[in-house]
Amino acid sequence: MPDVLIASDSPSVVDEVTAAIAGSGTTTRTVPTGVEVLPEISRQRPDLVVLDQQMGNMGGFATCLALRLEQGADRLEPVPVLLLLDRRADVFLARRSGADGWVMKPLDPIRLRRAVAALLDGGTYLDPTGAPRSSATVGPPG
């Protein structure tokens, strides 16, 4: 039974993520700040960490970077990280922070389930709604 740690200070985000992945035998735990993620992982390692980009005190990017630094120093076993992003421009920072996947807000249960399943299977999930616009969708200059 997969265990998912959700870090968000927004009850609505926690509710959306929990509802999207509920019913698949998945258990969820929550922490309201990024600072609490590392101690919670050290206490009991989850199968997946879901980080809300917009958390007060230590957001999703900083939390993901902290996890990757601890893993790089062999003080923490690797754990997949899914970031919940606010805008397309945040994809750059998601890549730089070492996230295994991301989903753009507003959250969609289908994309969330796909992302969680992909990361739990050892893969990645790069939300197509966060992809840069192709030149075919951009109008002529001027």
Verbal overview:
This protein has 142 residues and is α/β, with parallel strands linked by helices. It has a single domain, classed as Rossmann fold. 35% of the residues lie in helices and 18% in strands. The chain has five helices and six strands; from the N terminus they run βαβαβαβαβαβ. A six-stranded parallel beta sheet has the order 2-1-3-4-5-6, with helices on both faces. Helix 1 packs across helix 5 and helix 3 packs parallel to helix 4. The longest helix is centred in the middle third of the chain and has 13 residues. It is globular. The relative contact order is 0.16. The C terminus is likely disordered.
